[in-house]
Design brief:
The chain has helices at residues 11-22, 43-47, 56-61, 109-121, 135-146, 162-165, 167-175, 220-224, 265-280, 346-356, 362-366; strands at 3-7, 28-33, 39-40, 51-52, 64-68, 82-86, 90-92, 127-131, 150-155, 182-186, 189-193, 196-199, 202-205, 208-211, 215-217, 233-235, 247-249, 254-256, 291-296, 299-305, 312-317, 323-329, 335-341. By secondary structure, the chain is an alpha/beta fold. It has a five-stranded parallel sheet. The protein has a five-stranded antiparallel sheet with strand order 19-20-23-22-21, sandwiched between helices. Helix 5 links the parallel strand 8 and strand 9 (150-155). Helix 1 packs parallel to helix 9 (265-280). The longest helix has 16 residues, at 265-280. The N and C termini lie far apart (63 Å).
Length: 380
């Protein structure tokens, strides 16, 4: 009987299993992961909760074998209708300074549970130091502040996430931490202790220290098996490893040859749908325009498209003079990206425009009176 062995139980691994079930795959499906029941990773830094994708009964109902194990060696399939799928995700980067062991990461359900317990059991107003002001760092700063902690957020620049939000909106969002009681510092950590850090020569005391300085693709199994790896497991358009046609890789651990590695929730789901088509020998679905979101304090932030292709931006402001939407244009003036705060339907509208190759006029992009439904339509 044909089989699919999925290694990794994040959104990519779970979505592949769900796709195969929905398309009546006739073989056996197994999922291996050291953490057990597949769960959604994004809520970890927002709510500090692990949210399972489905109850255990769903896996039993569909004959999916869940194996809680930490694999150290990859068994390459021998039969033509057997597949191994690497959905191993990422591993958090560690600080390179004396005392780095005193910083906790926020990457797994166990990390989130530990930090939740520390915030719950600690004194009101306990001091939390977060090193790294990207998505995870900013989201956890918001969560810790809402739970009554005194939060200090250390960034390496005044515009964290500029590469995915655009410089202007990134600066605005980072500056708004202060309005919510979060102290921000720009500097470099040179030393950590059990209850302190030294940031650009300044000693900062803290009961909880978290490092959120980014992640790297978890390619250990692939490398050990001799698969092609370069900032991710290299794959073709069908998610096949460039080294072996029956080994697939998807999600944050994979990288399409010649492209940047995509590290976000929706890209992982699309990888899974394409991998299912490869396994079933069906037509793969088309990819959509990239999109991701982040919640911090009382703001919902979204980004559509690719800011690495942006040459100039058009900013739309709200009635308070704050940037609400940044539209990114490439060198030809075509709309290729946008980021927004509490944009409502705007992200969906922009995705459609980019996918159709439609670029609104500069006046339409700047005018807050032009709603998502009117954006890009000819003006009378």
């Amino acid at each position: 009987m044909p089989s699919v062995h999925i290694i990794g139980a994040g959104v990519a691994g779970y979505t592949l299993a769900r796709e195969l079930v929905s398309k009546n795959y006739s073989g056996t499906i197994s999922i291996s992961d050291a953490q057990g029941l597949p769960y959604d990773r994004p809520p970890l830094s927002k709510s500090l909760q692990a949210e399972p994708f489905a109850p255990l009964s769903w896996y039993r109902e569909h004959g999916i074998n869940l194996v809680q194990e930490h694999l150290t060696e990859l068994v390459i399939p021998q039969a033509e209708d057997d597949w191994v799928v690497l959905a191993t995700g990422t591993i958090p980067r560690t600080l390179q300074c004396p005392g780095a062991q005193y910083a906790r990461s926020l990457h797994t359900a166990a990390d989130a549970q530990y930090l939740s317990n520390e915030l719950d059991s600690g004194m009101f107003g306990q001091r939390v130091l977060i090193i790294g002001a990207g998505l995870v760092g900013a989201e956890f700063a918001s969560t810790a502040r809402m739970q009554g902690a005194q939060v200090t957020l250390v960034a390496s620049s005044e515009a964290p996430l500029a590469h995915v939000l655009g410089d202007d909106l990134a600066r605005q969002l980072h500056a708004e931490h202060a309005a919510h009681g979060v102290r921000t510092l720009t500097g470099t950590v040179s030393e950590l202790g059990p209850n302190h850090a030294v940031v650009s020569g300044q000693r900062i005391e803290a009961e909880i220290i978290v490092a959120a300085i980014g992640v790297d693709a978890d390619t250990a199994l692939a490398e050990h098996a001799g698969l092609a790896v370069e900032n991710g497991i290299l794959v073709d358009a069908g998610q096949r490893s460039l080294s072996h046609r029956q080994v697939l890789a998807l999600g944050d651990a994979a990288r399409h040859d010649g492209q940047a590695r995509a590290v976000h929730w929706e890209a992982a789901m699309e990888d899974a749908a394409i991998a299912a088509a490869t396994i079933l020998s069906t037509t793969a679905p088309a990819r959509s325009v990239p999109w991701f979101w982040s919640d911090r304090h009382d703001s919902h932030v979204e980004t559509v498209g690719d800011f690495s292709a942006v040459s100039s931006v058009i900013k739309r402001h709200n009635r308070r003079g704050k940037i609400q939407t940044v539209f990114g244009l490439d060198a030809t003036g075509a709309l290729v990206a946008a980021s927004m705060v509490d944009g409502g339907l705007m992200s969906k509208a922009v995705r459609k425009l980019i996918s159709r190759g439609v670029s609104p006029s500069i006046n339409q992009m700047e005018d807050p009176q032009i709603g998502p439904r009117e954006l890009g339509r000819p003006t009378p």
